Amino acid sequence: MTLAYKRGFVAVTAGMLLNFLGDWITGINIETFKGISTFTFSWMLDVFLVPFITGFIVAKIYRDRGGKYLACLPPLFVRCITYFYMYMYVYNDGKDFNYHLNLYYWGPCVILAVEASNFGAIIGEVLAGAYRTRQIRTLENAINKRYPADA
To answer: pTM of the full predicted structure?
Structure first.
C-alpha cells in the first residue's frame, strides 16, 4: 500500500466518522425527508454544512490534487449505510419500500450532500497547497533558507 492509498483511506474513514458525528449532533436523518415540512435549519446544516466540513477535512488529510474526488465518497457511503440501516431496522414494518423512505427525495438529497462535500474539498485543496507549482515551492524554500523565521 502506498502512502497515497493510506492517506486516502484515512481521509475517507475520518470523513465518514465526521459525517456520522454531524448527523448525530444535528439529530437529522435526511433519508426521512418528506418535502417542505421537514426542510428546517437543522436539516440544512446536515445537508450543506456537515458535508462541506467533511470534504474540507478529507482534502486537508489527503493533501494532494485527488482530495476533491475522495471527498465525494464519505457522504455517499454514509447516506447509503444510513438508508440501508433505516430500511432494515428502523422502518421494518412490512409496508411498501417507498412508504417511509422515499427514493425520489433521497437521491437529490444525496447529490446535494456530495456536492457540498466537493466544494469543501476544493477549498481544502487550495488551502493545503495542492495547486502550488514547483517554481513557487522552490522560491518559498529559498526565501525560508535565506530569512529563517526563528531569527
So the answer is: 0.81
